[in-house]
Design goal:
The chain is α+β, with helices and mostly antiparallel strands. It is about 35% helix and about 20% strand. Strands 8-9-6-4-5-12-11 form a 7-stranded mixed sheet. Strands 1-2-3 form a 3-stranded antiparallel sheet, with no helix packed on it. The longest helix is centred in the N-terminal third of the chain and has 44 residues.
Length: about 425
């Protein structure tokens, strides 16, 4: 195991097989020596041939008196030709063995390379310490000003401590369509690239990092900062939402995010599939970072003020479970309505009003439904369809009918109901009691 530590970069741990690597270096040296020997023999062959031609030129009527010497030279010339032919054949064998060992080494190494994020924060530099990188913090946004008021000063101070060269882009969806997080991130990528940034972090406005060991330095591979073992809410293996960072080159390689996801959720799961298809490993902070799900981040989302649009309309649910790698950052249309630099508590950020366009044939679910489907009710303040029983916590039981015109109600019973009570409740015969 070889560990390379650079003062300006993330630490990478590379496991490789030493035996094939040593054999590869041996064959490289052998091939180089054979090439030099072959060149020397070719030079000698040219010299001998030149001497012989001059001798024949000086005696056009026949061989010179020392014809025995000439015969010896001719014999040596034939021997040199045979030796050159043998060396050429041997060189081809060495080169073939060399390539075979290279292929074996690459095949073995491809399955054991691991990229590990540093425990200590690092500045935004690559392996070349003379090249400085610029981070674009892209915040997909709509009607979350209370959270933005906390986010901008907090992330500004956090990144300054890590000496990151960064800019904050708050990409606000200013149209009447359902929220499209993926499309807004694509817009932020376009604008930040034009401004000279070379890597980005997709950052939820309601997730504030607290642990200073979370590095926002330039990522050698796509990096999920809000790892499942650190995020306060989501812990499944393939989760890459919340805070995700990658270079602009890698963002282009995977064709950005699919803009076909309207409403809340699933666009990050589809983005995970894009990274997998393109053989891009995902780095995450180590589990030994010193904090966990309760104290690595502060989650400031107010579920009552900002209702999430979780409604799946028509074929939207089946679409969300499929890979959609064809749609990307160049397959949608948008308009920049306005762009301005604003300030919160002395911290600058760029606020961009964006109007997205919707292809009604491809994604008719971009428009909020006027009537909710079965199992949902219309949340009157927001006009968003919410699931029946949504937020009925443990110790609460849904009572009453969930209709298009009335909200669900939760009745506190002070305890979890039994399996038998649940059956009675489903049949409509259960009467709550403490």
């Amino acid at each position: 195991t070889h560990t390379h530590t650079h003062p300006y970069t993330a630490r990478c741990t590379l496991h490789y097989f030493s035996a094939p690597y040593a054999s590869l270096r041996t064959t490289d040296v052998m091939g180089s020596r054979l090439q030099r020997l072959l060149l020397l023999l070719l030079v000698l062959l040219v010299v001998v041939t030149t001497v012989l031609l001059r001798a024949l030129h000086n005696h056009p009527d026949g061989l010179p008196p020392n014809s025995a010497d000439i015969n010896r030279v001719l014999q040596e010339q034939d021997e040199l030709r045979e030796e050159v032919a043998k060396l050429e054949h041997k060189l081809k064998d060495v080169q073939s063995d060399n390539q075979r060992l290279r292929n074996q080494l690459e095949k073995k190494a491809s399955g054991v390379i691991q990229v590990v994020q540093p425990i200590e924060p690092v500045p935004g530099y690559s392996l070349d310490a003379t090249r400085k990188h610029r981070l674009a913090v892209i915040v997909p946004f709509r009607n979350a000003h209370d959270e933005l008021f906390e986010f901008v000063p907090h992330i500004t101070e956090f990144l300054r401590r890590q000496k990151i060269d960064f800019s904050i882009y708050v990409v606000n969806q200013a149209d009447e369509y359902r929220f499209n997080r993926a499309a807004l991130i694509n817009v932020g990528f376009f604008l930040s690239e034009q401004d000279g940034h070379d890597y980005l972090v997709m950052h939820d406005v309601d997730l504030l990092p607290l642990n200073n060991k979370l590095s926002y330095g330039f990522p050698l591979t796509p990096t999920h900062i809000a790892a499942p073992w650190l995020h306060p809410l989501y812990h499944y293996k393939n989760f890459i939402g919340g805070i995700f960072m990658l270079s602009h080159d890698h963002f282009r390689r995977v064709n950005g995010l699919s803009p076909n996801f309207w409403g809340w959720g699933k666009e990050d799961d589809e983005f995970f599939r894009r990274l997998t298809v393109n053989n891009l490993p995902i780095a995450r902070p180590p589990k030994e970072i010193g904090t966990g799900t309760k104290d690595t981040f502060r989650h400031i989302h107010d579920k009552n003020k900002r209702v999430r649009d979780m409604m799946k309309v028509g074929k939207q649910k089946s679409h969300g479970s499929k890979a959609d790698i064809q749609a990307g950052f160049e397959s949608f249309e948008f308009e920049i309505a306005s762009r301005r630099v604003e300030q919160l508590k002395g911290c600058n950020y760029t606020f961009i009003d964006v109007k997205l366009q919707c292809d009604m044939e491809r994604t008719p679910w971009c428009v909020a439904p006027k009537k909710c489907e079965k199992g949902y009710y219309m949340h009157k303040p927001s006009g968003i369809c919410r699931r029946c029983q949504y937020n009925c916590w443990i110790g609460f039981v849904l009572v009453g009918d969930c209709t298009q015109d009335s909200d669900r109600r939760c009745l506190k019973v002070g305890r979890d109901i039994s399996a038998e009570e649940a059956k009675e409740h489903k049949a409509g015969t259960w009467k709550p009691g403490v």
